[in-house]
Fold this sequence. Notes:
The chain is α+β, with helices and mostly antiparallel strands. It has helices at residues 48-57, 90-96, 103-124, 169-176, 189-198, 209-217, 232-247; strands at residues 11-12, 17-24, 28-33, 39-44, 66-70, 79-83, 126-127, 136-139, 142-145, 152-153. Strand 5 and strand 6 form a beta hairpin. Residues 1-250 form the Protein kinase domain.
Amino acid sequence: MHIGGIKTIIRYGSQDLIHLKNISSEGVYAANWKNTSTIYVIKKFVDNKEVYLTRMADGHQNIIRLYGVTTLDGKEKYSLVLEYAEGGTLRSYLRNNTVPFNWENQLRFAKEIASVILWLHDFKEIIHGDLHSNNILIHKDSIKLADFGCSCLKESDDNTGALGSGVDHALRLLILNGLREDPIQNTNAIFVKLYEKCWEHEPDNRPNIRQVISELNSISPKNNNISITFTPEESEESVKTENLYLSDSD
């Protein structure tokens, strides 16, 4: 069938998607395929552009797979049929995971995110446009980038800006006025310097994605270059800032 300029896209019958349950306030559902244990995610999409760009981006191991489209009962518009990420969002993983998030995994996740951004920019010429921890999912202990509803092609003027639409408006203003999260105690010093460079107010002063990957590859997974510790006052302020960052758009 033809949707969003794409000829080969599979349409799934809604009768084959059972045990539908809402998993997000954004119109996202989980459903079983027929009477199997296979779970798909059903997501309402904004327009045909989202289907087109989701399909274009399909094919990287760190991007949620697009399987096809369907129409839910009583709905006229199509919904995307997507891969299910059993680990949930990165935000919920950071908040609720009972297994310690060790440095080796932190570094690996950062490399996976940077790698998929490079792939989108250089090989697909796609700007994601809404990169935040609710659009980064965890599946089988790996990163999966999702939600291309705000994405655009490089040459397009349709861009949501560096902060994306998933950042709360009040927080957006604070960030634009210079608010930055304090480094977390015992974080690798080179890693801290890297993400502080990425926070530079002037875009021209930020490293490009290839420079980010090069820096990440230079960091030891053994975390043998620990950053300085903080005073109790600094640590308390860091917690306040961290809570502000995590509380937006839940």
